[in-house]
Design a protein that fits this description.
The complex is a heterotrimer of chains A (303), B (341) and C (97). Chain A is α/β, with parallel strands linked by helices. Chain A has two domains: 228 residues, TIM Barrel (Alpha-Beta Barrel), CATH 3.20.20; 49 residues, no CATH class. Chain A has twelve helices and ten strands. In chain A, helix 11 crosses helix 12. Chain B has two domains: 123 residues, Aminopeptidase (3-Layer(aba) Sandwich); 208 residues, Rossmann fold (3-Layer(aba) Sandwich). Chain C has two helices and four strands; from the N terminus they run βββαβα. In chain C, strands 1-2-4-3 form a four-stranded mixed beta sheet. The longest helix of chain C is centred in the middle third of the chain and has 18 residues. Classes of the chains: A alpha/beta (303), B alpha/beta (341), C alpha+beta (97). At the A-C interface, helix 1, helix 2 and helix 3 of A face helix 2 of C.
């Protein structure tokens, strides 16, 4: 399937235990909205949360946002029902917590396929984001990222990861540096998006900015946020610079020319331009557009 | 609403620090702590200080306090919802709240319905027609022209003193309803007590025996956390209990007279009876105090007397001066032997 | 579907609805509605509730509703959750479109 450009600069979790928050979340500027059935929902409320998530996503999902449902862990008692409900709700993707192997991904993908078939949904249309939250997940990030065509992003869950490492979570984040890089390497290798971990202190704007700047410099495509007040700030860091925009425009220009002249491969500045690079260029322009930057010509109608 | 506050749960009976935290917070609001609190929830600020809490024990929600600066933040509805959810998870679904009348609105907004309100206290339950359904379950046919009387009794166990009271009252009205208090306070469980009364009055055709449901409030279950130190818990509880009885049970059932045994000794019961004589007439109900029956030894026959003697002596012929045959037979049985251990 | 025990779903927080279902001992369906928007939306709330009762084939229950301005789909979701809890039967997702 042709991978379309979807911005993932910010993704916001909203608890399906709380209709008020679910209603509010549609009014913020996050690119991706994750309806959560996992950590923010107490065990006694999982059944009710599942119903709320289904009704909301299936029939009243917000327009213009990429919508996900985060299900409970693969080995939890809630997983099977979560999957049935979540796939049938027809979100853009499911977010799976604590993924630790390619085999798990394939197993989940197969189950989703069966539900898609039963529910009359185009098989393969439900995407997957894998949360990497343990040392095993980090060690196997490479195989996880490539495990299945549904996988379009890996996201780092720093709190659980540091717990699994018996490390101490700090704002500067040195303890998760390797994990961040491992995930980035895996995602670049697989041609998918990489999402950085949350910055939990919602009262520390300076800290958030530093952390997001680091994420952007490392190469992340976006960050998960824990509170709406973080959205606009994080979005701003994933706004491309003029230099990046110009480069993206040039990439798309040579691609377009190559198409017109039926050239197999195209190059720019001596380097080959392949499909992933084209996609990155489109993403850059989409990020620019989302930030309100006016771009004339190629790519300005891209999203 | 809650960026600066985190919602927390507490288990005071399992974790002593939780208990101390809640106790101290309630004390800072001049409210008391009750030892039967099983679960609590509340909001803590960034420094880990409690700013609001609500508690519950068995089927009662209580121990509510919110720092005055934070009122109007919807903390109450969040806490009430969480407490209700916790109780339901524990299989307790018929819930009650006792609070000051001015705080009723929070509970009414959260699915609680008033049962009785006095100037000092209010009682609510989480059912819109709980007490109506209870009355219906008694399957009493309307008897508008009859002179109906009622007695509320514990019968722990059923004694000749009770029998005397009942016979006297039965002679004074067309129909007599005996309400046996369901709440188990000591020694004999409700089904035993109820059955002994039923059997013990089966020869009296105009006497009917009914369970009290959860609608008779004893001074054991009545929470006092919201009362100030100088407020008289006994009177306030009595007033609430009697108002509930008069308004929601006696009036709908057309009960005209409430019979009660004279209380020469126990101060609490004496106080209760005084308040009864003050309140019942406001609802058109007559109160008749009946002198107690004394045994051959000159002592007033009461259940507490029987219990205290049973603590020292094995059941035997000596019991016959205090209890009727049906109770005697029971007390000599294996079952009773086990229970009295 | 038989309601065999009292059960509750939802909360009384803003934009939510708390629904309590309990058995009615063969006396049919009894609905008690308390809503902050009863005048404007009372009828539509009752309609949604009755629809769910019919879909689940519930003939005997006391339904107590405390609505704090919940959207229609929230009422539906809470109603379904309460009925499943009260009948101790899990929701059958395989039947859902």
């Amino acid at each position: 399937m042709e991978r379309k450009v979807t911005l993932k600069r910010t993704s916001l979790y909203v608890s399906c235990a709380n209709p008020a928050n679910m209603n509010q979340a549609v009014f913020y500027n996050e690119d991706c909205l994750v309806y959560d059935l996992e950590d923010s929902v107490p065990p006694a409320e999982k059944d009710a949360a599942r119903l709320l998530a289904y009704h909301t996503v299936r029939y009243h999902r917000p327009e213009g946002k990429y919508v996900l449902i985060r299900v409970n862990g693969i080995y939890s008692e809630f997983f099977e029902d979560d999957l049935e409900a979540a796939v049938r709700a027809r979100p853009d993707a499911l977010r799976i917590p604590k993924v630790e192997s390619a085999a798990e991904v394939r197993m989940v993908s197969e189950k989703i396929g069966k539900i898609e078939t039963a529910a009359g949904i185009e098989v393969g249309s439900t995407e997957l984001w894998c949360n990497i939250e343990s040392y095993l997940g980090v060690l196997r990030a490479e195989e996880i990222a490539k495990a299945d065509p549904r996988v379009v992003a890996l996201a780092l869950g720093a709190e659980d990861f540091t717990a699994s490492m018996k490390a101490t979570r700090t704002k500067k984040g040195i303890e998760i540096l390797y994990a961040r890089n491992a995930i980035l390497l895996a995602c670049r290798n697989a041609g998918i998006d990489a999402l950085d971990a949350v910055f939990s202190d919602i009262n520390d704007e300076e800290g958030l900015r530093e952390d997001t700047m680091l994420a952007k410099n490392l190469g992340f495509d976006g960050k998960t946020v824990v509170h709406p007040c973080q959205i606009d700030i994080v979005n701003s860091y994933f706004t491309p610079s003029e230099k990046e925009i110009r480069y993206a425009l040039r990439v798309l220009a040579v691609v377009e020319e190559g198409r017109k002249m039926n050239k197999g491969a195209v190059t720019l500045d001596g380097s080959m331009i392949d499909k992933p690079m084209e996609l990155r260029a489109r993403t850059t322009l989409a990020q620019a557009a989302a930030a309100g930057i006016k771009i004339g010509g190629l790519g300005s109608d891209n999203k | 609403m809650n960026e600066n506050f985190s919602f927390c749960e507490y288990y005071p009976q399992l974790i002593s620090t939780d208990r101390e935290l809640i106790k101290a917070f309630l004390a800072s609001h001049e409210l008391g702590y009750e030892n039967d609190i099983e679960y609590a929830c509340g909001f803590e600020d960034l420094h880990g200080n409690l700013v609001a809490c609500g508690c519950c024990g068995k089927n009662i929600l209580k121990g509510f306090a919110v720092d005055s600066a934070l009122r109007g933040n919807n903390f109450m509805s969040r806490m009430i919802s969480q407490l209700v959810s916790n109780r339901f998870q524990n299989g307790i679904t018929h819930l009650f709240v006792f609070t000051k009348p001015e705080n009723m609105e929070f509970f009414e907004a959260s699915g609680f319905y008033p049962l009785a309100v006095t100037t000092m206290a209010a009682m609510l339950e989480n059912k819109a027609s709980g007490i109506e359904h209870y009355l219906k379950s008694l399957k009493i046919e309307a008897r508008n022209n009859k002179n109906i009387g009622a007695i509320v009794m514990n019968c722990n166990p059923f004694t000749l003193g009770h029998r005397y009271l009942i016979e006297y009252a039965a002679g004074k009205c067309d129909e007599l309803y005996i309400f046996v208090v369901e709440e188990d306070r000591s020694v004999f469980p409700f089904d035993v007590r109820f059955s002994l009364v039923q059997k013990g009055v089966s020869d009296l055709p105009n006497v009917k025996v009914y369970p009290s449901g959860p609608y008779i409030i004893s001074n054991q279950t009545f929470p006092t956390y919201f009362l100030k130190k100088n407020e008289d818990a006994v009177s306030i509880q009595a007033e609430l209990d009697l108002t509930l009885f008069a308004e929601r049970i006696a009036n709908p059932l057309n009960i005209h007279t409430r019979f009660v045994g004279e209380e020469p000794i126990c101060a609490v019961t004496k106080c209760y009876n005084q308040i009864m004589k003050r309140i019942m007439p406001k609802y058109g109900i007559h109160v008749e105090e009946i002198p107690r029956k004394t045994g051959s030894d000159g002592c007033v026959i009461s259940a507490s007397l029987v219990r205290s003697k049973l603590a020292q002596l094995s059941p035997g012929e000596w019991l016959r001066q205090y209890v009727p045959e049906v109770t005697y037979a029971y007390l000599c049985s294996e079952d009773a032997h086990r229970i009295m251990k | 579907m038989q309601i065999i025990k009292p059960a509750i779903a939802g909360t009384t927080e803003s934009s939510d609805v708390q629904i309590m279902v309990s058995p009615n001992n063969g006396n049919g369906i009894e609905i008690n509605l308390n809503s902050i928007v009863k005048a404007q939306f009372g009828d539509s709330i009752l309609e949604t509730v009755k629809e769910v009762l019919e879909a689940f084939d519930v003939k005997d229950a006391i339904i107590q509703i405390q609505d704090k301005g919940a959207f229609d789909w929230v009422i539906r979701a809470r109603m379904q959750a309460a009925l499943c809890r009260g009948s101790e039967t899990p929701f059958d997702w395989k039947q859902v479109e």
